[in-house]
UniProtKB/TrEMBL annotation:
This is Circadian input-output histidine kinase CikA. It comes from Paenibacillus albicereus. It is an enzyme of class 2 (transferase). InterPro entries: CheY-like_superfamily, HATPase_C_sf, HATPase_dom, His_kinase_dom, HisK_dim/P_dom, HisK_dim/P_sf, PAS, PAS-assoc_C. At low DSF concentrations, interacts with RpfF. In the N-terminal section; belongs to the phytochrome family. The lineage of its organism: Bacteria, Bacillati, Bacillota, Bacilli, Bacillales. It comes from the Bacteria. Gene3D superfamilies: 1.10.287.130, 3.40.50.2300, Histidine kinase-like ATPase, C-terminal domain (3.30.565.10), PAS domain (3.30.450.20). Pfam families: HATPase_c, HisKA, PAS_9, Response_reg.
């Protein structure tokens, strides 16, 4: 039964408050909400807010009288059905009565009225109002039910259609599927199969109906779960794919995958099984596995070949560059000095080509890893440009470096790879710019990274006024071995790997690189990298950087001068010791303490003087394990230049014998030697020396990924690659001979 429990509002309109109070007294014991208004205007405002069951209104009121108010009420769609009762004390009864009915009133009463009659009329109109509300609710409910019935009818029709369609689709799929579909009961008796049973099992459909599923799929023993393999039993229970060997009619077997499902039909458990023939897939997998093994063998062969080529080229290069460096320090006439400088420049160019090829091999193998060390952005830019200042002056090029002041002074990142990118781009700019200017800039980038709030994007730009890049060449610019001019008569040399290496290094650092023409001439290379801000110490306002240790020497080392050359070969060989040789003085406080000492030392005052002071005039004992006669002479000459005499071992076995029979402060160990290689020799020296053994520095022509790690795992203390430069050698000697004595050095491996 529908009931109305909403409010019942009655509007009372009279300009005399005492009349309103009199009406309120008559209706006070009824559960009505009486809304009193003193004017027609106020009554109209009340009608805009609420719904009313009946309106009781005086005729004569100042401003808008009752008749005019009634006309306004009846003109609105929302209020025209509300019954209006006029209550008046006027003497013009007949005239007002006619007018009242004309404007839409439903009743007219004279003052004073009989309370019982007034009350009964109000109750009658309220009853009509409540009945009307109930009818409205019934209408709404009926509409809702009608809509729901219509919706259910449509849904029923749609479901019936879908069921019919699903049955048709199921029939088509079952009859056209290349997989065999089988249903069977709980006892394993086959109920239905699809036509694919014939090409897959060589059975006709009627031949297998009523047979046991075990005759087709022997692994599927539902009646005897203990007869199933663990994989099959797990597949039956979980519905996963199971690899089985089904049985054909002729007794042959084939590779297949089956998937089981089950459902209850009239309290009977019914299984459905789909059988997929995977014979071809298994064949492809075997072929892929064979190809993968062959590719791995080829990859290992390529790696071994690169290592061999690197060793075989760098070993004579070590002799060429080393001896040429020593030759430049002898008395030469002007022509001889020109010849030696040409040899050095040619050797450096050849070494750059070798390093480009090896770097690209590392990138191709995916074996490049990022370091995370704090460094100065400004110093990194300065060091990258220092190498090219002389060439720029020679070509009358203006070279500018601009660093945005909003960038932090120190950041965390891989300074070596960032410097390599900058040097490649600046080198190209110098090479392709015959006149004008080269501008290198750094500023905050717009990219954002999820994770640490300290992560930031830094955008670098190298802008030149050179020959520019043709529009049609931009698409292939960052492809390996791509050349702007690949003809035999080209003016500019190069391997075509520099920009490809830059692109891979930038992407490794979560950045991007692009090139656009520089108007009116030249090119602009822009790249971004992801770096991390160095946090400041709380309350100190200073960057949170590693602190330098107190040096063994009593005298402070002189600061690095900007005019000193940066080791390009050291940077490309990506070794800790060589990179340290080229570091700026600020980097002494930035590089981590990896080998028991502090930061990497810069070039120092005469090495022999400091060695003498640290050893109390006792000459350091050094052993060189090297099989190549040229390299033996080179390292001995370089050591002699520093005032150090050394013993020589021609192979690893002899090096072990000498290291265990004498006390050495430092051993330079080649990795590839006859009889016993350097790695095995190091393991034996470390293993048989107990907790104290000399510092062992790997000295090798191998610079492939993993070479340095192999050295450190064998027990070596440091790693330098050939060709060996005097400054690199001096850095290694300074670090390890000015550190702790051999007797006090503890194993860290």
């Amino acid at each position: 039964m529908i009931s109305y429990d909403g409010p019942i509002n009655i509007l009372l309109v009279d300009d005399y408050p005492e009349n309103l109070l009199a009406i309120e007294a008559v209706l006070s014991d009824l559960d009505y909400n009486l809304v009193k208004c003193l004017s027609g205007e106020e009554a109209l405002r009340a009608l805009l807010k609420d719904d009313f069951a009946v309106i009781v209104m005086d005729v004569q009121m100042p401003g808008m009288d009752g008749f005019e108010t009634a006309r306004m009420i009846k003109s609105r769609e929302k209020t025209k059905e509300i019954p209006i009762i006029f209550v008046s004390a006027t003497s013009k009864e007949s005239q007002h009565l006619f007018t009242g009915y004309a404007v839409g009133a439903i009743d007219y009463m004279l003052k004073p009225f009989v309370p019982q009659i007034f009350r009964s009329k109000i109750e009658g109109f309220v009853g009509m109002y409540v009945s009307n509300k109930k009818l409205q609710q019934q209408k709404i409910l009926l509409q809702q039910q009608t809509q729901e019935l219509e919706r259910m009818n449509k849904e029923l029709m749609r479901t019936a259609y879908q069921l019919t369609k699903a049955e048709a689709i199921k029939s088509v799929i079952s009859s056209t599927s290349m997989d065999t579909m089988i249903t069977f009961d709980e006892g394993g008796i086959i109920l239905t199969v699809n036509p694919s049973i014939l090409p897959m099992f060589s059975y006709a459909e009627k031949e297998v109906i009523g047979r046991h599923i075990h005759e087709l799929v022997p692994e599927l023993c539902l009646a005897q779960p203990e007869g199933m393999t663990e994989q099959t039993a797990e597949g039956v229970s979980s519905g996963r794919l199971i690899e089985v060997m089904p049985l054909r009619k002729d007794g042959s077997r084939f590779h297949a995958e089956i998937k089981l499902g089950s459902t209850h039909v009239d309290d009977e458990l019914i299984y459905a099984c789909t059988v997929s023939d995977i014979t071809e897939r298994k064949k492809t997998e075997r072929e892929l596995l064979t190809a993968k093994e062959a590719a791995e063998i080829a990859d290992r062969a390529k790696t071994d070949f690169l290592a061999m080529v690197s060793h075989e080229i760098r070993t004579p290069m070590n002799g060429i560059l080393g001896m040429t460096n020593l030759l430049t320090e002898t008395d030469l006439d002007e022509e001889q000095r020109d010849f030696t400088e040409i040899i050095l420049k040619s050797g450096d160019s050849l070494l750059g080509v070798i390093n480009d090829i090896l770097d690209y091999a590392k990138i191709e193998a995916g074996k490049l890893e990022l370091e995370r060390i704090p460094f100065s952005l400004k110093s990194c830019l300065d060091e990258s440009l220092d190498l090219f200042i002389a060439k720029a002056r020679e070509n009358s090029l203006e070279m500018l470096c601009i660093v945005d002041e909003s960038l932090p002074e120190y950041v965390y990142g891989d300074v070596t790879k960032l410097r390599q990118i900058l040097m490649n781009l600046v080198s190209n700019a110098v090479k392709f710019t015959p006149e004008g200017r080269i501008e290198v800039s750094a500023r905050p980038g717009s990219g954002a990274f999820a994770g640490s709030a300290r992560d930031m994007t830094v955008e670098f730009q190298v802008r030149d006024t050179g020959v520019g890049i043709p529009e049609e060449k931009l698409a292939d610019l960052f492809q390996p071995f791509s050349q702007l001019d690949s003809s035999m008569t080209r003016k500019y040399g190069g391997t075509g790997l520099g920009l490809a290496i830059c692109k891979n290094l930038v992407e490794l650092m979560d950045g991007s690189i692009a090139c656009v023409p520089n108007e009116p001439r030249g090119a602009v290379f822009t790249f971004t990298v992801r770096l991390e801000r160095v946090e400041e110490k709380p309350g100190s306002g200073q960057a949170d950087l590693p602190q330098p240790r107190a040096e063994a020497s009593a005298e402070p080392h002189p600061r690095w001068e900007a005019s000193q050359p940066f080791s390009f070969s050291a940077m490309l060989s990506d070794t800790f010791a060589e990179i340290g040789a080229a570091a700026m003085p600020e980097m002494e406080t930035l590089l981590p303490d990896r080998y028991g000492g502090g930061g990497v030392l810069p070039f120092a005052p005469p090495l022999l003087d400091r060695l003498g002071r640290s050893r109390k005039q006792e000459a350091p004992r050094v052993l060189v394990a090297e099989d190549n006669e040229v390299n033996q002479k080179l390292i001995l000459k370089l050591l002699d230049r520093f005032g150090i005499e050394a013993d020589v071992a021609e192979n690893g076995e002899l090096a072990v014998e000498m290291a265990l029979s004498r006390t050495y402060d430092l051993i330079f160990m080649d990795m590839k030697m006859p009889v016993m290689d350097g790695l095995e020799a190091t393991r034996r020296i470390v293993g048989q020396s107990g907790s104290a053994y000399p510092a062992i520095i790997a000295m090798t022509a191998n610079v492939l990924p993993g070479d340095r790690q192999k050295c450190l795992e064998a027990g070596m203390t440091d790693y330098i690659s050939k060709p060996i430069r005097p400054d690199i050698l001096e850095t290694a000697i300074t670090r390890h001979l000015l550190g702790e004595p051999a007797a006090q050095r503890q194993s860290t491996h």
